[in-house]
Amino acid sequence: MRYRAHEVETVANNLANVSTDGFKGDRIAMRSFGDMLMSRLESAPEPPLRMKTIPPRVGWMNLGGPIAESEYVDFSQGVPKTTGNPLDLYLRGPGFFVVDTPQGERYTRAGSFTLDPQGRIVNHSGYAVQDSTRQPIFITSPAPIIIRQNGEITQDGLPVGRLRIVEFPDMSSIEKEGSTLFRTVDPTSAPPFDAINSTIEQGVIEGSNVNAIDSLVQLISAQRAYEAAARAVDMFNQSLNRVSNELGRLPG
To answer: 196: helix, coil or strand?
Structure first.
């Protein structure tokens, strides 16, 4: 029941973000309960002194049923959505944009950017997007903005900057922070490196990688499994209650 409740919460959160640009769905890795060694509790023949701490064994009991072992992020590519906005950027590949926050560098796949009053390229939370020198990128001219596949930004043929795109040697080294941002789990883990397998497409954004239909089916299935387990527990409780009441009334 705990596993199913966790599954319902996870799938519900995925569904709530099905329209969030750059959102990556969560998944649950599950395993079965392990076998449990059963031992007798009643008195037994006196064992040798060296074995007094080892109770007589009966055998193994399989508990069955799944339990949630861990939760992980599905980093599969989201669906591209064409917008035509020159500051909407789609990352094709495993890369991440880098933004400056009060807590330090953070990473995001949500490439829907705008200009703040100072002319900086910022994300939807107002955090400045880094260039290849880890500085903010300023757009001061009204000329059309061209962003190439390698992240180079030009206006009227003149270079303005180059977006910093990074990749991680181990995707398990980052975790969600909220607002489509990621952070490193352990500061001592291998740092990100300049992207080599990622390209940028201008005028396109990456949608959520959550499939609404599949998630809705999974949610209904998890809810029904939870209800079935709850009914089974209730039936056991009723049986035990009946046994305890009727045995107490038996003569002698």
So the answer is: coil
The rounded mean pLDDT for the chain is: 86
Give 23-44 as a 3 state SS string.
CCCEEEEEEECCCEEEECCCCC
Which structure tokens are listed for 49? 């002194």
Give bridge partners of residue 59 from the DSSP assignment. Answer: 38
**pLDDT tens by residue, 151-198:** 999 999 999 999 999 999 999 899 999 899 999 998 888 899 999 999
Query: What residues does each domain of the chain span?
Result: 2-34+57-74+211-246, 80-206
Query: Can you spell out the DSSP letters for 113-176?
Result: -EE-TTSBEE-TTSPBBBBTTSSB-B----SPPEE-TTSEEEETTEEEEEB-EEE-S-GGGEEE
pTM value? 0.77
The tens digit of pLDDT for each residue in 38-49 reads: 555 555 555 555
